[in-house]
Amino acid sequence: MERIVSLGARSYPLYIERGALRCLSPRVNLARKVLLVTDEGVPESLRTLVLSQCGQGFLEVLPMGEDSKSFSACERLCARMLRENFTRKDLVLALGGGVIGDLAGFAASIYMRGIDFVNLPTTTLSQIDSSVGGKTAINFCGVKNIVGAFHQPRAVFLDADALASLPERHFVNGLAEALKMGLICDPEILALFEKEDWRSHVEEIITRAVLAKADVVEADETEQGERKCLNFGHTIGHGIEAAGGLHGLLHGECVALGLLYFLEDEALKSRTLAILRRLGLPTRADVDPEKVFAALTHDKKGDATGVSVVVVDRPGHYLFRKMTYDELRARVFAGVDVP
Amino acid sequence: MERIVSLGARSYPLYIERGALRCLSPRVNLARKVLLVTDEGVPESLRTLVLSQCGQGFLEVLPMGEDSKSFSACERLCARMLRENFTRKDLVLALGGGVIGDLAGFAASIYMRGIDFVNLPTTTLSQIDSSVGGKTAINFCGVKNIVGAFHQPRAVFLDADALASLPERHFVNGLAEALKMGLICDPEILALFEKEDWRSHVEEIITRAVLAKADVVEADETEQGERKCLNFGHTIGHGIEAAGGLHGLLHGECVALGLLYFLEDEALKSRTLAILRRLGLPTRADVDPEKVFAALTHDKKGDATGVSVVVVDRPGHYLFRKMTYDELRARVFAGVDVP
């Protein structure tokens, strides 16, 4: 299927179909210079599949992991484009997870003040969440996504085949963001997760989640208001992620935990816990709450008086609540009451 | 006077008046964290004037010159904002010439994906040209402005008092951009330069030039088409600038020379030469044409088949012309026929 994300002059299509990566052209003009950015974790067969479609393709393979979201990696991509004489009319393709999309998108946004960027996400996390919405970013001074730009892609291709070799833990990790979309916007996603044969409904889950996200982005492109609902689960989730350090939990796993702190309906919390267990996502974090709180006060969403958090009070319905740091601290220390 | 630059949600006022820097508030909200970015060449009295108006002001003083338009200077500004816990609601003020405005504007555009930026230009060059239009940039791998963003300021203050201590050579340097605006858009500027007492008309010249620039920017914010007329004089000008190296001519001086190559009317060329001589701007460059041509082919405006250049055929009227590299080379080597 094709869904246009409507953002005026910055509108772009989402192509959601198996095998979409096999025929990028004519949906994308590949008859120009193309920088294909990927990482060592992406199967070589996918790389080759994409590169073979480019007339003048140039490949940059980065190390896996958050460390590649850095100024130096961004400089490396810009230097490569400069060396290959990329002009404003050329293209950056991101093939990988959120790290690659965020980094390549940011480089595309600043090279010559912005060139075309197309996103080919290869993880559940990036297909559901980061590939749509135009947020690009790098990390800096230990703070996640603190430097970046809003730079909408020209197109995004969600190809279920690209997920084939994703390890189980990473596959499930991304589904936490779909669960989040279910909780804030689309209860049908919860119902799909609750089916015995939920695995055979994963494409439907991903599709529903990304379409719900597109709706949110269209209504508030640069996160002035309602788009902040997407931060549901992320306030404490980011704190857990930062406190855990490099060898801690994955992003989706932290979001899964983060959701639980702000579910204000006991029945919904039980349903959510049952889904987390069924998926094999964690329901308890082994991190020092003091560290979690310290990390989240460094988060960019707060100001002097407190933090705006998203709470869910019934399936598919959220509200914003301003919380003082004391209240938030109390909530972090109370932890999640897992029955 | 106040002129709104109309760019939809990104509209902002230009305040053009003597003493404007003395009362920034309430035109700008200074009741928040403010990073004042300036350089060693800006008089301390100006710095103090601005800083004293900020409740929570933080000062970054950079070395003078193009070397400050770098990734590392940008990282320095972002790190300072992070250390001082700047949020999305805080402000970057640029006090200086084009280097400071371009750098501080770029840092403001990427910190947290964009925070407020107000420009206080203190040179004729930045008042006339770089402070209006939202182009921000740094240099990279020896190429000028190759990395950057479109990030409109929230306000620009053009205060003639801020020019008081500008050395004569720099004062005149910036007027080359006003001469450019006269040639492409507003012949009245040429008439003002031709008055015996042109120096007493400098504020009027600056005002007319910046208003003409605002018109162009409004019509084509991100340089898809007509805005390219502002590149008049810059194609070969940039080449001369790059070929001259660090101790060569100033930017405006190079633009002044660059104009002469693309004036296609002999009478207008004579008038322009007379104005350059009156201002004390150069009419002849002492640089190797081979180096100039090599440098300009590295310029980001070209593609494989040639370069689009701006020519002026009568006062206040320009046209675009596609030129092959061979034609351009011939023009560089022919030089300017100065009577």
SSE order and pairing:
The structure is a homodimer of 339-residue chains.
Chain A: E1 2-5, E2 12-16, E3 33-39, H1 44-51, E4 56-62, H2 71-83, E5 91-96, H3 98-110, E6 116-121, H4 124-130, E7 135-140, E8 143-150, E9 155-158, H5 168-184, H6 187-193, H7 202-219, H8 234-244, H9 251-260, H10 266-279, H11 289-297, E10 307-314, E11 317-323, H12 325-334
Parallel strand pairs in A: 2-9, 3-4, 3-5, 5-6, 6-9
Antiparallel strand pairs in A: 1-2, 7-8, 10-11
Helix pairs in contact in A: 2-3, 4-5, 4-7, 5-6, 5-7, 5-9, 6-7, 8-9, 8-11, 11-12
Structure described in brief:
The structure is a homodimer of 339-residue chains. By secondary structure, chain A is α/β, with parallel strands linked by helices.
Task: Report the strand count of chain A.
Answer: 11
Note poorly predicted spans of chain A. none
Please state roughly what percent of the residues of chain A sit in beta strands, choosing from under 5%, 5-15%, 15-25%, 25-35%, 35-45% or over 45%: 15-25%
Round the Cα radius of gyration of chain A to an integer and report it.
Answer: 19 Å
Assembly state: homodimer
Write the element-wise H/E pattern of chain A from the N-terminal end onward.
EEEHEHEHEHEEEHHHHHHHEEH
| Mean pLDDT across residues of chain A | 93
Q: What's the shape of chain A?
A: globular
Which structural class best describes the helix and strand composition of chain A? alpha/beta
Q: Mind describing the biggest β-sheet of chain A?
A: 7 strands, mixed
Biggest interface and its residues per chain?
A-B, 29 and 28 residues
Q: What's the number of helices of chain A?
A: 12
The end-to-end distance of chain A, rounded to whole angstroms, is 41 Å
